Amino acid sequence: MAKTSYYFTARPGAFNRDCQIIQIGPADSLTQTALRWAQTNGYDNVYVYDMNHQPVTKYERIM
Prior knowledge:
By secondary structure, the chain is an alpha+beta fold. It has one helix at about 30-40; strands at about 5-10, 20-25, 45-50, 55-60. About 20% of the residues lie in helices and about 40% in strands. The chain has a 4-stranded antiparallel β-sheet with strand order 2-1-3-4, with helices on one face.
């Protein structure tokens, strides 16, 4: 099955720094992947956007 691409970013609407394109497969969890990305990069928040720069959701990493 096809993967879906998303932007993960540490700042809302920021697509030029502190962001990464992530592909999520049908068996993967967007929530767990986003929270792991935030933790790995030391960010408190992760904003998720689709490839058209439309917001999908925001997660807050619990310390």
